[in-house]
Amino acid sequence: MPVSLRARFPAHVQLPIRRSLDQLFVHSSSFLYTVLGDDGRVPPYRQTGSRLRGLDSAGFGLIEIAIVLLLAGIVLGFGLPAINRYTDDLALEGTTHQIARVLALTRDRAKATGKARTMFFESGVFGTDYRVEYAGLTQTGWTLPRHISYDPSGTLTSVTLTPDGRCSASGLIILKTTKDARDTVSVLSSGLFITR
Asked: Which of 63, 98, 174, 179 has the fewest CB atoms within 10 Å around its CB?
C-alpha cells in the first residue's frame, strides 16, 4: 500500500479504498483499450472530431433518400390540386367583391358629378376585362385574374349608372373559374349590388 494511503487512513478503511482504486483502474483501462485499440493508437475511423463514430454511420443511404422523395412526391401530388382550387376560389371571391366595389364607386361618382357613367364587362377589349367609360372615353379598366372568366350565359355586357343613383338595367354578372366554380354580382335597377 502506498505511504500516503497508510498515513491518512486507518487500517479498516484502507482495504475498501484499495478495492475501489483497483476497480477504477480496470474500468479505465478497458475504456482506453476500447477507444485506442490494441496498439494504443486512435484508429482512423475514430478520428472524426469530438464524437466517436463507426464506419456504418456515414449518413443517409440511397434507399432512404428515395423513400423520402417518393413520400414528398405523393404529398405534393395530392396537395397541389387542392391548393390550386383553393387559390382559384379565393381569387373568384375577391374579383366578385372588387366588381361590386367598382360598381358602387362608379355609381357614387355619377351621383357626385351629375353625369352618367357606363361600365362594360367584356373580356380583352382595350386590354381590360371590365372598364368604366364616360362620354365614349375609357376612364379606367381592370383585368380579371388568370383562371377566371365571364360566364357568357346571362352576364350583363354593360350597365349605365345614372346621376340619380340608379342603374339602366338589372341582371347578373357571372364569373367562373376553369373548374366551373361560379360567383355572381346581382345588379338591381335601384342601384343596389349584391354578391353571392
From this structure: 63
Scan for cell 456515414, then name that residue: 58
Residues 35, 43 contacting (CB under 8 angstroms): no
Direct distance between the N- and C-terminal alpha carbons of the chain, in angstroms, rounded to an integer: 98
**What region does 127 belong to: left with phi over 0, alpha with psi -120 to 50, or beta?**
left
- What is the amino acid identity at position 135? A
Contacts of 92 (CB under 8 A, 6+ apart): 148, 175, 176, 177, 181, 183
pLDDT digits (tens, 9 = 90+) for 126-184: 889 999 998 888 888 999 998 999 988 878 899 999 999 999 989 999 999 988 899 99
Question: Could you give the angle at the alpha carbon of 98 between the alpha carbons of 191 and 148, nearest 5°?
Answer: 120
Taken in order of first residue, the domains within the chain and their CATH numbers are 3-55 (no CATH), 71-195 (3.55.40.10)
Convert the pLDDT of each residue in 94-134 to its tens digit: 999 999 999 999 999 999 999 999 999 998 888 899 999 98
Q: What are phi and psi of 76, to 5 degrees?
A: -65, -35
The answer to whether the beta carbons of residues 102 and 110 sit under 8 Å apart is: no
Q: Judge residue 147's burial from the number of C-beta atoms within 10 Å of its C-beta, 0-12 exposed, 13-18 middle, 19 or more buried.
A: middle
pTM for this one?
Answer: 0.63
Strands 193-195 vs 182-187: parallel, antiparallel or unpaired: antiparallel
